[in-house]
Amino acid sequence: MLTVVWVAVGGAVGSVTRYWISASLNAFAYPWGTVLVNVVGSFFLGYLVGRWGFGDPTPVRLGLSVGLLGGFTTFSTFTLDVVGLWEAGRITESVFVVAVSLVLGVGAAVAGLVVGRA
């Protein structure tokens, strides 16, 4: 039960933080808020894995990874943003957002892993 509480609290904090950042930045032509939260979340998840490894899923670790970072990052909003650009005829821009998100997200996760292991 303690794990569920940690995940729920982390998820609430992560979701509200994501909403605040996305609402502040998504007023521009690109969904920069969504890209930013996914890249930052990828970095910190990589950091946690670098710090703790993949084993021993304690309630606090699950609260931070599944809860906080799971609530903070968003794949569904990312896909909706991309489809919205595509549907608006902004195909090149939608492909650009996908490429930037993947390259920066994976790069941030690797950087976080390296920093976490240092």
Compose a concise summary of this entry.
This protein is mainly α. It has helices at residues 2-25, 32-52, 59-72, 75-87, 91-117. Helix 1 runs parallel beside helix 3 and helix 2 (32-52) runs parallel beside helix 5.
Overall description:
- Helix content is 84%, strand content 0%.
- The longest helix is centred in the last third of the chain and has 27 residues.
- By secondary structure, it is mainly alpha-helical.
- It has five helices and no strands.
- It has one domain.
Fraction of residues in H or I helices: over 70%
Separation of termini?
Answer: 33 Å
Structural class: mainly alpha
Structural shape: globular
Instruction: Tell me the fraction of residues in β-strands, as a range.
Output: under 5%
Order of helices and strands: HHHHH
Unreliable spans: none
Query: Major β-sheet, in short?
Result: none
What is Rg?
A: 15 Å
Total domains, how many?
1
Tally of strands: 0
Return the average pLDDT rounded to an integer.
Answer: 94
Instruction: Count helical runs.
Output: 5
Output the keywords.
globular, 118 residues, 0% strand, mainly alpha, 5 helices
Topology:
Layout: H1 2-25, H2 32-52, H3 59-72, H4 75-87, H5 91-117
Helix pairs in contact: 1-2, 1-3, 2-3, 2-5, 4-5
